[in-house]
Amino acid sequence: MSCVAKILVVLDPNTVEQKALNRALHLAHISGASVTLMLSIYDFSYEMTTMLAASERDAMRNSLLNDRKVWINDLLEGYNTEGIAIDTQVVWHNRPFEAIIETAIQGQHDIIVKATHPRDGLASLFFTPTDWHLLRKAPCLVLLVKEHDWPQHGQVLAAIHTTGEHDHHRSLNDRITATAQQFATCLQADVHLVNAFPGAPITIAAEIPEFDSSNYREAIAANHQQALREHAQPFAIAEQFLHVEEGLPEQVIPTLAEQLDAELVVLGTIGRTGFTAALLGNTAEHVIEHINCDLLAVKPEGFQSPIKV
Q1: Which of 85, 94, 169, 292 falls between 20 and 30 A from 258, CA-CA?
Q2: Which of 49-53, 127-131, 200-204, 261-265 shows the lowest per-residue confidence on average (mean pLDDT)?
Q3: Residues of 275-307 as b/e, b for ≥16 C-beta within 10 angstroms?
Q4: Which of left, alpha, beta for 204 (phi over 0: left; psi -120 to 50: alpha)?
């Protein structure tokens, strides 16, 4: 089974190198997917033209849209698009993330591909507000891209939470692992699973002198290792590709991804929005600030986007 069928790639008019387009076309070549090139534009000077006739305002807007369509056609001349079904959409919208999600829903795309930007002076990536909105609100897969190549026989790292007591945790784990395997098949890569577990609370060791933190750590690690093996068994993932590490996910996952030189990290996002998102954030959002490879975000089964078409 192909990893994707319909790709929505978000173009960046402010950069020469279109990382997302490069990745999307590569993915289309190896998966046979169709590609929609999408650009959201808006000129705020348009707000100052309310005194013009409606026909004049429409002419101004259409001129800008047509200029961008010509730019996309010129852009494509530098890429190998042979055998790929390609469509283009230029959307007039003052909130890019809403335009992207609405386009994805209308076109029934199963993945959104968008470029990230390197943070000045650091190895980590800079995620824009649009990226955060897509991670939280897009109903389909979201692939955030950097410069890292996708060579054959690479490494795909899937991060899961094996000790979740609820069915929705287990369901999301299954979706993350299945998605990682689908992409690994396309990339001819190996799938690794990682599960982070917390260490012994320092306060317990301080308040209870007889508390044995070593035994506690070993017992917790053994519990997570067994849970990870049980999860991996239906997916036929061998023991050497299972990683149980002590620490916070935002520390463990980027470190392991760097050690493996992973091309892709696959994470689950629960789509938290509003005050709780501002207060707590998602684990995935803490993790991705520190990874230096592509990120693929997976939503839980039955997730409904708050963006309505």
Answers
A1: 169
A2: 200-204
A3: eeeeeeebbbbbbbbbbbbbbbbbbeeeeebeb
A4: alpha
Cα–Cα distance, 23 to 9 (Å, whole number): 9
> For residue 198, is it left (φ>0), alpha (ψ between -120 and 50) or beta?
beta
- Reference 243, options 232, 282, 154; nearest CA is 232
Q: How many residues does the chain have?
A: 309
Per-residue pLDDT of 135-174, as tens digits, reads 889 999 999 998 777 877 889 999 998 765 567 778 899 9
Q: pLDDT exceeding 70 applies to what percent of the chain?
A: 81
Residue 19: in which H helix or E strand, if any?
helix 19-31
> Pairing relation of β-strands 111-115 and 86-92?
unpaired
Cβ distance 266 to 157 under 8 Å?
A: yes
Distances (CA, A) of 129 to 14, 44, 98: 16, 19, 12
pTM of the predicted protein model: 0.88
β 294-298/141-145 pair status: antiparallel
114-138 pLDDT, tens per residue? 998 765 544 444 567 888 889 889 9
Residues 159/267, Cβ–Cβ less than 8 Å: yes
Measured CA to CA, the distance from residue 191 to residue 201 in angstroms comes to 32
DSSP string, 206-272: HH-TT--HHHHHHHHHHHHHHHHHHHHGGGT--GGGEEEEES-HHHHHHHHHHHHT-SEEEEE----
